[in-house]
Specification:
- With about 425 residues, this protein is an alpha+beta fold.
- It has one domain (about 15-70, about 115-270, about 305-410): Outer membrane efflux proteins (OEP), CATH 1.20.1600.10.
- The protein contains nine helices and six strands.
- The protein has helices spanning about 15-20, 40-45, 50-70, 105-175, 180-215, 240-245, 250-270, 305-370, 375-410; strands spanning about 35, 75-85, 90-100, 225, 275-285, 290-295.
- It has a four-stranded antiparallel β-sheet with strand order 2-3-5-6, with no helix packed on it. The chain has a two-stranded parallel sheet with strand order 1-4.
- β2 and β3 (about 90-100) form a beta hairpin.
- The chain is elongated.
- About 30% of the residues are buried.
């Protein structure tokens, strides 16, 4: 199956009611938040309209198996005439009946059933691949919203801290300990942080609206994604990722297409068998009564179905090449995803354990030193700016790692966990 388009349709509006039935409980308050966890989203995936459409396609493929099993109907031919003897001595009504039972379908029935079963396997594999694709896209939206919420919270804390620092600077200016220009400098820095906070809030509103559309909710502003962004999964091993890629539903679908085309080659080859039909007839004429059995068959003098056989053989060869290409592509994707997930976990761990604590410590020390009159405001602002950038990079790394590890789980077959 080809890459799934990002332009997927939204879930039915009725799903909103399901949110409350499966444990998505609103918080108390005048403007309650609708909390949504990843487990809640997983439960809703099967209600997605594209997956519903895929189920109908699978049902159609099963119906095609029944159609392939069905025998063709016999045909009946009836004739009626008014006959008169040559010497005009006698005349009467004449009639005839003939029943024709085709038999040529018997040779093609088995491979046609095999081809129909293979198309069922294709539909099943495509449904699973689509489900994984939908989960992957929802994970991106979910973790993007979690990231934007964390970003707003971090900028909000820093904005409060800048307000405290502004108060300290103004007090020192009033007491004549520093020059008045320092109050202006801290106000400029506070405005920068306030501006970044507003931008982050707008991004969070947009992300909430996007996820709300997927969930069929009209209350995107109340949506709250509940998850620990810093709780990173353990990356699966390279060997596990490659084994999972070998069992990916995209490959299952490609293998099923090969089986279907192999059955089609057999169907076309057996089409060379001359068409045969058994006829049972009766004729009631002016001067005789006739009853009998006959055979009708096609004479393959000019057409041996060579063109259709060659076409089906080339289509089979092409599909085998596509299967090999998809196998190699999935294996490469598994290697890349495993590497990106593992690298992201390592970098996020370094930020959490070594980089961010030091940036926070430096900011606290320099600010305390400034309060004691032993550091300049520029040093405080620089430390705060470094802390802001470090927190932003840390959150961005966490979000990207969650998405990369989600891609790895999709390839390894663990996306629904």
């Amino acid at each position: 199956m080809k890459k799934i388009s990002l332009a997927l349709a939204c879930i039915s509006r009725s799903v909103v009611m399901i949110l409350f039935l499966i444990g998505v409980l609103p918080n108390a308050g005048a403007n309650p938040k609708i909390e949504i966890t990843w487990q809640n989203i997983v439960k809703l995936v099967d209600d997605h309209p594209q997956i519903g459409a895929s189920r109908h396609e699978t049902a159609a493929a099963h119906a095609a198996v029944d159609a392939a099993r069905a025998a063709p109907n016999p045909s009946v031919e009836a004739t009626a005439a008014y006959g008169r003897a040559i010497d005009n001595s006698e005349s009467r009504f004449e009639w005839g009946l003939a029943l024709s039972i085709p038999l040529s379908w018997i040779a093609r029935r088995s491979p046609r059933i095999d081809a129909a079963h293979a198309r069922v396997d294709v539909a099943d594999a495509q449904t699973e691949a689509l489900r994984r694709g939908v989960l992957k896209q929802l994970r991106v939206l979910f973790w993007t919203l979690v990231y934007s919420q964390e970003r707003v919270a971090a900028l909000g804390d820093l904005n409060d801290q800048m307000a405290t620092l502004s108060t300290t600077v103004r007090r020192r200016v009033e007491e004549g300990e520093v020059r008045p220009v320092e109050a202006t400098r801290v106000e400029v820095e506070a405005e920068k942080i306030a501006g970044e906070l507003e931008v982050a809030r707008l991004a969070m509103i947009s992300n909430r609206a996007a996820l709300a559309i997927w969930l069929g909710s009209d209350n995107g502003e109340r949506l709250l994604a509940v998850a620990d962004l810093a709780q990173l999964p353990d990356p699966v091993t390279m060997d596990t990722a490659r084994k999972g890629a070998a069992k990916h539903p995209d490959l299952d679908a490609a293998r099923a297409r090969v089986n279907a085309l192999e059955a089609n080659v057999t169907v076309e080859r057996r089409a060379r068998v001359p068409s045969l039909a058994v006829e049972i007839f009766t004729d009631h004429e002016l001067d005789r009564r006739a009853y009998g059995v006959g055979l009708a068959f096609e004479l393959p003098l000019w057409n041996w179905n060579t063109g259709n056989i060659q076409r089906s053989q080339h289509m089979l060869a092409a599909q085998k090449n596509k299967l090999e290409f998809e196998r190699l592509e999935l294996e490469i994707r598994a290697i890349e995803a495993q590497s990106q997930c593992q690298a992201g976990v390592m970098l996020a761990t370094r930020y959490s354990e070594r980089i961010l604590p030091r940036a926070e410590f430096a900011a606290r020390v320099i600010e305390r030193t400034y309060q004691l009159g032993e550091a300049t405001l520029l040093e405080v602002i620089d430390a705060r700016r470094t802390l802001l950038e470090t927190r932003g990079q840390f959150l961005s790394t966490l979000a990207q790692t969650q998405i990369d590890c989600s891609r790895l789980r999709e390839i390894a077959g663990e996306e629904s966990q």
